[in-house]
Every structure is written in structure tokens, then in C-alpha cells.
Design goal:
Blueprint: H1 6-23, E1 27-35, E2 38-45, E3 50-58, E4 65-71, E5 76-79, E6 88-89, H2 91-102
Antiparallel strand pairs: 1-2, 2-3, 3-4, 4-5, 4-6
Protein name: DUF3024 domain-containing protein
Organism: Mycolicibacterium mucogenicum (Mycobacterium mucogenicum)
Length: 110
Amino acid sequence: MAKIPDSTKASLHQRLSERARLRWPALSEIRMRYRAGFAYVDGVLADGQVLPLCRLRYADSARNWGFAIYRASHDDYEDSYLPTGVMGGPAEDALDTACGLYLNDPTVWT
């Protein structure tokens, strides 16, 4: 699995932070962690609570990422489909899907 380049890490964090600012006002911050070819995305609520949201798999492209939803019931990540019916796509779609679930906003899927 390819390592995520530092420039891609920076642009990914910037893109997801901007999406959260515009679409998910309940989040005060997006936090990212990286391990091998994965980017782990957490949202921070105004009260400081950290919500693990999803894991993105790098596929040699800054625009197309594999998607795994965080499963709170199992404390792990499971490869998942986006509402578009595919298992990967833009990181913003992955963020929207995870936030729709954890912030209880099903309009993301309509």
C-alpha cells in the first residue's frame, strides 16, 4: 500500500476542514491521523468530544479514496459503500456519509 505524500495529507485535511465548516456546523474541528496508506478522520464537537468518523484508504490519487465507516459498536472500521453505490470516491463524500450517520442527518443520502 502506498504511503500518503505529505502534500496530499495537507490538501486532504484542508478539504475536509472546509467541507465540515460549510456542511457540518456541529463540528468545531476535523482531526486527522495517518498510518501507512490510511487517513483516519475524527470530528470534534463544540464540547470537545471526539467522534471517530471514518478511515480513508489512499489509492495513489488525492481525489479518490477508499471508504470505511467507524463502527462504534465494535470500535473498528469496516469497508463500506458511499450513497453513490461505490466503495470509494471523493473524501468529502466519505465525510458527509459518516457525519450523516453520527450527527443524525439523513438528508445526506437524499
